[in-house]
Amino acid sequence: MTINLSTAVVESREQRLGTIIAWDGAASDLSKESAYARGSCEAGCGGQRLCELSGPFTQGSVCSEQMVECQAGNVREAVLIQHSPIGCGAGQVIYNSIYRNGLAMRKLPVENLHMISTNLQEGDMIFGGIEKLEQSIRDAWERHHPKAIFIATSCATGIIGDDVESVAKKLETEIGIPVVPLHCEGFKSKHWSTGFDATQHGIMRQIVRKKPKKRQDDLVNVICLWGSDVFTPMLKELGLRVNYVVDLATVGELEQLSEAAATVGFCYTLASYLAAGLEQEFGVPEVKAPQPYGFAGTDAWLRELARVTHREEQAEAYIAKEHARIAPRLAELREQLKGIKGYVATGSAYAHGLIAVLRELGVEVNGSLVFHHDPIYDSHDPRQDSLAHLVDHYGEVPSFTVSNRQQYQFFGLLQRVNPDFIIIRHNGLAPLASRLGIPAAPLGDEHHALGYQGIINLGETILEILAHKKFHQDLAAHVKLPYKKEWLDLKEPFALVKKANSLDAERL
């Protein structure tokens, strides 16, 4: 792994990891073609490049800047300045709601986000927006007196070439707190997950304490979003404390990232860059194990965390206790869910974990949609190959699709496997499923299915949504889908993609 903190610009996922946003086939085939834990790449592409389907258009997605909104914008005691037109700040409304709910779930003081837009206009696109940025930084300081200010760039500022770094350095000296530029122009990366890396890059460069005051041997960095506090009781069993980052963390909690005994995460899509960087730059070991979903993943994850923190005996006692505790209820759930088919449509590594939990519950999973695929993570350690772990421990997923949240493809993907329910995190896909008579479980709390209790949580959630299936069936009988009959009759969700690729081949 090589993370370069000498520059303010993070390397995109496509460059660093070979991230793709379009692929279709079986999960085992994707794992083999990724050439990660499966040996060398037959195509001679270095094991980090996959042949990616190229579509004619994108119907809907989000961008790197929006992920900076939900990361840097969720840091307490800080202000995020979006150096952009006002439209880029539209996400502030929903993220404010999520931020407040997250604070409430963690039993922290509830407050609103502190975000400012520089509101670039047509004239600024011609003459530059540096003066507006300087004024916004001073306004942020005078209004909120934060302990750090983050600056999110945008497509607009990338096009006009504003020197954001020079402004940040000038104002940092003037007001005496970190002013952190986060380069997250949406057009620089095909997938929004690069925005996670941009935020984490800036935090490691300018917020994390370069010389730790002390090593805290019982402190573990947990990289997550705004989910409920499930890690504290889990890690307490091993005599460990939790340092939640990045969302909902204070600036002080980010500063102490370099003092922890280890770093873990709930999803390698989110955690990969920061965890690897903390190990490389600050000597904080990243726990290299499968994600903590299902028995196989959670057992391995706990044992590796225990090995790194020298708490093996406590871990074995906790594992045995939890296996015994959930066994009776798990047996009941397996009986109740017998013959049920599920479908997972979420981010990449998170989907791998959720499918594992569904298989633990005895739910049939013949298909899944992931929004991107990273052939490798920043540690380059095969123990973190979450897709290989899924295939090896829980079997094949025949219809495994990578697609960047494209609504027009989702109809065909669901028709392939006809599930009884879907699991999602991004609610924009749920209405289409409802129109097909399929209920959805929107996991707003990303920790809901994590660990041993997560198996039970997810099983009970599935029973709850299946109890309302008749409502969705009635809805399907009385609504019309927003697509032409010709498209609905097609059996191939990637028909437009393959046609475009065929035409390109003919031109060559």
Walk me through the structure.
- Residues 73-465 form the Nitrogenase/oxidoreductase component domain.
- With 508 residues, this protein is α/β, with parallel strands linked by helices.
- The chain has 3 domains: 13-18 and 40-59 and 211-308, Nitrogenase molybdenum iron protein domain (Rossmann fold), CATH 3.40.50.1980; 64-183, Nitrogenase molybdenum iron protein domain (Rossmann fold, 3-Layer(aba) Sandwich), CATH 3.40.50.1980; 326-489, Rossmann fold, CATH 3.40.50.
- The protein is 47% helix and 12% strand.
- The protein has helices at 13-17, 27-34, 64-71, 92-105, 122-127, 130-144, 155-160, 164-175, 194-206, 231-236, 251-255, 268-282, 294-309, 312-336, 348-360, 386-394, 407-417, 430-435, 451-466, 469-478, 485-489, 495-507, and strands at 22-25, 78-82, 115-117, 148-152, 179-182, 219-224, 241-246, 262-265, 341-346, 364-370, 399-403, 421-424, 440-442.
- The longest helix is centred in the middle third of the chain and has 25 residues, at 312-336.
- It is globular, with a radius of gyration of 23 Å.
Short description:
With 508 residues, the protein is α/β, with parallel strands linked by helices. The chain is 47% helix and 12% strand. It has three domains: 13-18 and 40-59 and 211-308, Rossmann fold, CATH 3.40.50.1980; 64-183, 3-Layer(aba) Sandwich (Rossmann fold); 326-489, Nitrogenase molybdenum iron protein domain (Rossmann fold, 3-Layer(aba) Sandwich).
